[in-house]
Amino acid sequence: MDWLNYHHLFYFWVTAKEGSINKASKKLGIGQPTISTLIKTLEESLEQNLFNRQNRALALTEVGKVVFDYASQIFALGNELLEVVKDGTFSQRVHVHFGVLDSVPKHLVQSLILSAQKTGPCVVSILEGDEEYLFRELQAHRVDLVVSSFPAPIGDKKQFFSRFLAKHSVAIYGAKIFKSLKLKFPFSLQGQPFIMPSLHSKFRHDLNHFFQTNNINVDTIIETQDTSIQKLLGIQGMGLIPLPEFAGVELVKEKKLFKLGTLQKVTEDFWLVSSPRKFQNPIARNLMENFNWKS
């Protein structure tokens, strides 16, 4: 029977993460020739090249990428084992990783975390980023689920599964200085300063379509996918902000923002996305099948 040398795998994994043998040597505190030899031994045992070597630069081969993904899961599981043993309860705590788009409401993320903890003992890690980065991490199995404001791309049906969670109407909010814009809404928005989602988002596309259809020209002064930043800037009176209506309720109650009106036929949708894998995370699988969000 062939045995995998996990020490060799670990040196390869660290080198791939660091991007060079020099950096891996400094991190591990061992000589570069030793690391080179051990990686070469691993390649010989697998009968595959794991790196393309060009001068001093290292780039993973296609096989190297697969090995790196498996190694990441193996060492993550090892860390989880240590956490369980150190915890003293010896109850298995599943580690579940969520990828969250910056535009996703924190209330939804909180609800997902609470549901995960109710499903079973677990450690939850949150990774934030843009769609391209998070879907790449999901495909590589470095995250278990992605919470998104749109489903996975149509051409990637074999790589991803998308489950619809909710649809919410969208309203425009502003500080007290904009309160008079309630009159003749939405045409009162003509020429007003806006803090908008970034151009690559579906939400921004839908907003642009609404304004163009209604011949309303708004002045976009700031673009950000982070709804927390949008709210802070909106409260300071720097511009108007579009939000799902549930996201503005508390701020309206506190009179930090005022609702100017609802945009007809404009909604923000939310989805849960997973990727097929050989070993399903039990917490993630349960959430993918049963999670319901009540905003």
Please state the second-level CATH architecture of the largest domain: 3-Layer(aba) Sandwich
How much β-strand is present in the residues? 15-25%
Top CATH class of the largest domain: Alpha Beta
What number is the mean pLDDT?
A: 88
> How many discrete domains?
3
Q: Percentage of helical residues?
A: 40-55%
Written as H for each helix and E for each strand, in order along the chain, the element string is: HHHEEHEHEHEEEHEHEHEH
With strands numbered from the N-terminus, the spatial order across the biggest sheet is 4-3-5-10-6-9
E-strand count: 10
Rg over CA atoms, rounded to whole Å, is: 24 Å
Low-pLDDT stretches are none
Largest sheet report: 6 strands, mixed
The shape, in one word, is elongated
| N-end to C-end Cα span | 54 Å
CATH topology descriptor of the largest domain: D-Maltodextrin-Binding Protein, domain 2
Question: How would you classify the helix and strand content by structural class?
Answer: alpha/beta
